[in-house]
Amino acid sequence: MLILGxxxxxxxxxxxLDAALNKKHSKQTPSSSAQADISSRPSRFSSLAKHIDIRVxxxxxxxxxxxxxPLGRIFFRGVFANGRIICHTLFFLIILSLAxxxxxxxxxxxxxxxxxxGTFTHLIFDQMWLSPHxxxxxxxxxxxxxxxxxxxICWLGGIFASLWTQPNGYAYITEAIGGxxxxxxxxxxxxxxxxxxxxxxxxxx
Length: 205
Hints:
Layout: H1 3-25, H2 31-34, H3 44-51, H4 54-75, H5 90-107, H6 111-125, H7 132-135, H8 152-165, H9 170-191, H10 195-201
Helix pairs in contact: 1-3, 1-4, 1-6, 1-9, 4-6, 5-6
């Protein structure tokens, strides 16, 4: 999965989860409230932004690549020769999640948990279960699989090549879905005239 797929679909998954939790809490709401003007209800994006910082979510959806790609393909290419290393492991996700739980319990800050959720979706969308040596590191040993050519330009070329070489259309479908969700989100913040406010403060209204 590529950039639009990771960010957009993770945003969509977070909205679905937020909607499910809101629905659960609203079961006790009197029926008269259900007749309220629908225009007064917050959008899915606004509802999500009340609970988490969407900027952190988007970063979290790319976090494993943000860390592993430069480390494994550029700075320590001779050592790792792989763009999916430590941050693509279940070990990293567990450590990040435990730190997030601790921070939330101590200070009621959820940004680390949001990063954990983004990392979790990243591993799912990368289908890391197909690479158990990496996913379950270090159970299979301390080293990571190495790839033949780790030049940065080859990695960029591989990203675009995957759009034509994956016979099941996975890259096309996920990028299209993610792109649509991101386009709707951009349309929302442009309509609300909150683009700068979102970038600076994470506000969407």
